[in-house]
Amino acid sequence: MVIEIRVLYNERIYIYLLTIIISLFSFQIKTTQKVFICKSTSSKRYHYKKTCRGLNRCKAEIKETTLKKAEKFGRTLCKLENK
Length: 83
Ligand SMILES: [Zn+2]
Hints:
membrane; binds zinc ion; transmembrane helix; single chain; transmembrane
């Protein structure tokens, strides 16, 4: 009985740690993931691909930035790339 409880407890810790590791990993991706934005003031999107159709419409300068910065400026993922 005591052993069973201990196993369950360990499993919980394991899942908890795994969740932390996964969230840290995705945070790391967010801070380093490169995205492209159109510098036009009317543009509210960011793009993973520089060749994206949504980005082709951009009349202003195309700038490479990080996902974190793009989100900080209120940009959301381009609908053409949202799978
Ligand atoms: Zn796009």
